[in-house]
């Protein structure tokens, strides 16, 4: 990755002020050979140049990623490029942003519960926390951190009453579709298309029209159809096939 060269020089106090670090920290980095200034004034004061600032960024980025100073020295002396460090730093920050978004969604849900239920108990708080934080390992295989944050935010936006209504709707709709299958209903008929419209609307509540979330949801169900049907009373492959045919007829 190309770097710019401004020709500027910084004394240690100025560099500390511009970076938010302490002079003591910069002195320590110099003493252990981690970030050494390229020059000195006639009076012997440290003078940092562009390349020293780039090196300092590398150190701070790796520090934020959790590396010890000894490990950072080994990495930076091993020829790792600034571009590679930036990529790793960006990935770390993406994870932190996703975690923060999820946390905010959890706090929003707890806040709503407190506002609507003034007598909320500690047990209620624990139930809500468990409900919004516990993520099945299977789900983690199909949704990345950003998607899980999207789901947490969507759950907070919808609210528990809406989510409960959606769950109730599924409990009514899935047996209807099962009955239609057992009765040999034509998936292209008007009633089948009405059920397909409701089905797609309920799925929309989950993925919000996001193609990535929708595809992850479908992939998860395809790979775990038997478990979802047995443990969560979810739709069978036959029911999904019926709905897909009905939806195709509805869309044509």
Number of contiguous helices: 12
Low-confidence stretches: none
Beta-sheet strand percentage?
A: under 5%
What Rg do the Cα atoms give? 28 Å
| Assembly of the depicted chains | single chain
User: Mean pLDDT score, rounded?
Assistant: 81
- What is the element string, with H for helices and E for strands? EHHEEHHHHHHHHHH
> What is the 3D shape?
elongated
Helix content: over 70%
The strand order across the widest sheet is: 1-3-2
* Broad structural category: mainly alpha
First-last Cα distance: 51 Å
Q: What kind of sheet is the major sheet?
A: 3 strands, antiparallel
**Total count of strands:** 3
What's the SSE blueprint?
Blueprint: E1 10-11, H1 12-19, H2 23-31, E2 39-40, E3 46-48, H3 50-64, H4 69-76, H5 82-116, H6 122-133, H7 137-142, H8 145-182, H9 190-207, H10 211-223, H11 225-232, H12 237-251
Antiparallel strand pairs: 1-3, 2-3
